[in-house]
Amino acid sequence: MLRRVRNFAASALCVALLAGAAQARGACAVVDFLTLDLTGAADRDPVEAALAFAYPSLTIVDGAVQFDNGTRLPIGPDRDLPAPDRLDDPTLREQFSQTYPLAFDLSLRETPWMDPGRARNDAFFRNLYFATKEAAARTLVRVGYQRGATRAAFKVTTRNCVADQLQAALDEIRASGAPMDVYFEKTGGSFNWRPIAGTDRLSAHSFGIAVDLNTELGGYWRWSGRPEGNAGAYANRYPPEIVQTMERFGFIWGGKWHHFDGMHFEYRPELILFSRLAH
Ligand SMILES: [Zn+2]
Question: Whole-angstrom Cα distance, residue 123 to residue 115?
Fold first, then answer.
């Protein structure tokens, strides 16, 4: 009996925690980044405009972004580095050196090192999201996809409305009625505080902004046996409908990268807006 009472107390606490998390998520107005009104952006530096429209918490003054923790980070120059050198320590502006393609055209990735979104300024993400694993953990919630026997759950952050944006994307995919369930089976990771192999830079999964869908269908260049810089052909098995819906809600897809990561989606609305502004 005591055990049953304890279990009841534990599940009541669990429900309370979930309710609290749901409230925090509900605070966001979901944004469609493919149709978001960009009035005023055409008169601005497109990098500054993309950042400002993507992240309302940022203040941009005198060529620098200021985060809500008070830290300033210069947007910096584009030094026109060779793409492999840019990966190590890009300026904030260099995150935009390669324009993420909104078209479902995988021929662009045939160019070696064409990986728009893979160059990340570490300080930008540590300030926009978190500097420690503990701080990240306090903001994580579960976002789910459920239809029939298919259930997937992803741990992502509520910061910058990532959880609400992901939930909106998954709800849209499910509601479309298209046969998408298989992509939500055998899913990979979501939140995972870890450096990128061989570097000090944190992976996008560290910030709770990335999800990996079906790993068997995804394809990943590191598993292909090909060397970095020559990742070769990518036999994509993900449909454009999933990719385009995820992009609408701010998530770029690793299947468009030369170093393909076809299961990987990452919240980078600034790249989607920059792509619109660059046209
Ligand atoms: Zn991933």
Answer: 20
Nearest-angstrom CA–CA distance, 19 and 173: 24
76 within a domain of the structure (yes/no): yes
d(CA 269, CA 256): 16
Q: What is the whole-number distance in angstroms between the Cα of residue 113 and the centre of ligand 1?
A: 18
Q: What separation in Å is there between the alpha carbon of 263 and the centre of ligand 1?
A: 7
Q: How many domains does the chain have?
A: 1
Q: How far is CA 199 from CA 87, 89, 128, 206, 234, in A?
A: 10, 11, 20, 14, 25
Query: Confidence band (pLDDT; 50, 70, 90) for 26?
Result: low
Task: Give 202's strand partners.
Answer: 195
Q: Give CA–CA dist 246/79, Å, rounded.
A: 31
Domain region containing 178: 41-277
The answer to whether residue 2 scores a pLDDT higher than 90 is no
Give the distance (Å) from ligand 1 centre to CA of residue 91: 23
Q: How would you classify the pairing of strands 210-212 and 264-267?
A: antiparallel
Determine the distance separating the centroid of ligand 1 and the alpha carbon of 153, expressed in angstroms: 14
Please check whether residue 27 lies inside any domain of the structure: no
Tally of CB atoms within 10 A around 186: 15
